[in-house]
Amino acid sequence: MNTLLEPIYQFLPCKTPHRWVEMAIANQALLLIDHAHCEKKAASAAMNVIYHYSQHYDLMQKMSRIVREEMRHFEQVLGLIQKRNIDYVTLTPGRYAKELHRHARNDHKGRIVDLLIIGAFVEARSCERFAAVAEKLDAELVEFYLGLLKSEARHFEIYLNFAQQLSQEPIEERIQLFAKIEQELILSEDPLFRFHSGVSI
Q: The whole model's pTM is what?
């Protein structure tokens, strides 16, 4: 697992604070509900790329596979929620994705690169958090979350590789911009506990 996670740790600007892990353990029902919402959003984000950037054939193929995988994960989380007699409810969205997207460029060529970089951060953080909480939960969730690590790590690489391929210039400066924003979101106090939230107040 360490080999799988090493590129994730190198890419992310910080590790998840222990306080968030404590909150996740104490709020497992909420964690699962928001996880389900996150899988839907991830599928929607990949579908959005397909709709708006249809001139990139290879990109559409990869995004289509990601849509299917994310919806399969959504179904799996729903199964766990139902099995545990948890009410699946609508949640107020956290700030994480909204704040990252707020800094994406608006021009067509720049925006797709930024959206892909943001996708890489979302997938990388998801992977890192699965690893952070997995072995502190019950056996069923340990198996489930550890099973998601490989696919999330692969999604991270797909997003990042396409960001570089479609950019007409090096993307390191854009990565650093979003890394700074992401670190602030992860380490600062957050009024809502969510899968990608900061440190809960």
A: 0.96
